[in-house]
Design goal:
single chain; 311 residues; alpha/beta; Indigoidine synthase fold; 13 helices
Length: 311
């Protein structure tokens, strides 16, 4: 079995792999399904530049023409930002997309899988998926949580998306043994807001401490990922009570229209954007950039630990 026959690396990522330079994985669903054009491509490029400015190499991941691309060119980013027939790819979709030579934008789960295949340990995103509200009836649980249970990648995010049942999401992660680290916070951030009624497992103060935890976990063979929950900056955060009201309204509309499954999250995020007059999109962009700053630092420190071990 030759996994590399399914994968292609950008020149920038290839060089980083050869030299042991820190690499940060980035998803592509946020480009193809999460934001409108041209803000999606502009944001993707700015996030990549933030990671470079911190001494790491960005690797935006997607499946194009039946190949897992680890690192995208400007032209490929533009294509993803405008194409209308790109499949939203999770774990179940990867084999079909590869075999049929179609295009797929990777979700959190799929990006984690591809990152691990490429030996990338740190992944920056907006927010993780989780247990949907009313999941005790619908059984609607994001594949992100199962992936965190088995795939050795740290996910730097602004917590769980606030459209979810955050309490049940935390319970699920606890059952699966996934540590949830709060970066400078005791409270789990809720994407658009800096806090929620739920506590993280452990508060970490530095990116060095975070990298040490990752190394200890994986050195011991404790499989699975780590959630690094990094709150949205105060200046960009939205009011918690206002967001709760808006999310309840969006959830009611989704129920009335029968929107379920993997269509639920894009619908709800779009409805929240509409009901906040676009403020939620501004907040989304700000939190992803903030996560890139923290994630790049973690990746740089983790790469240093790996280099020390090889000498």
């Amino acid at each position: 079995m030759n996994i590399n026959s399914y994968m292609e690396y950008s020149q920038e990522v290839s060089e980083a792999r050869k030299t042991g330079k820190a690499i940060v994985a980035l998803e592509s669903t946020i480009i193809s399904h999460g934001m409108p054009y041209p803000q999606n491509v502009k944001t993707a490029r700015e996030v990549e530049d933030i990671i470079r400015s911190k001494g790491a190499v960005p690797a935006t991941i997607a499946i194009l023409n039946g190949k897992i691309k680890i690192g995208l060119s400007h032209e490929e980013l533009e294509y993803l930002g405008q194409a209308t027939d790109v499949i939203k790819a999770s774990r179940r979709d990867i084999p079909y997309i590869l075999a049929s030579k179609k295009d797929g934008a990777t979700t959190v789960a799929a990006t984690m899988i591809c990152a691990e295949l490429a030996d990338i340990s740190v992944f920056v995103t907006g927010g993780i998926g989780g247990v949907h509200r009313n999941a005790e009836v619908t059984m609607d649980v994001s594949a992100d949580l199962e992936e965190l249970a088995v795939t050795n990648v740290a996910v730097v995010c602004a917590g769980a998306k606030s459209i979810l049942d955050i309490g049940l999401t935390m319970e699920y992660l606890e059952t699966k043994g996934v540590p949830v680290l709060g970066y400078g916070t005791d409270s789990l951030p809720a994407f658009y807001t800096r806090s929620s009624p739920y506590s993280v497992n452990y508060k970490v103060e530095t990116t060095e401490e975070t990298a040490d935890i990752l190394k200890a976990k994986w050195d011991l063979g404790l499989k699975g990922g780590v959630v690094v929950a990094n709150p949205i900056p105060s200046r960009d955060a939205m009011d918690e009570n206002e967001m709760n009201r808006i999310i309840e309204r969006a959830l009611n509309e989704a129920e009335e229209q029968g929107v379920t499954g993997k269509e639920a999250t894009p619908f709800l995020l779009g409805k929240v954007k509409e009901l906040t007059d676009g403020k939620s999109l501004t907040a989304n962009i700000a939190l992803v950039k903030n996560n890139a700053l923290v994630g790049a630092d973690i990746a740089v420190h983790f790469a240093k630990l790996a280099k020390v071990e090889t000498f």
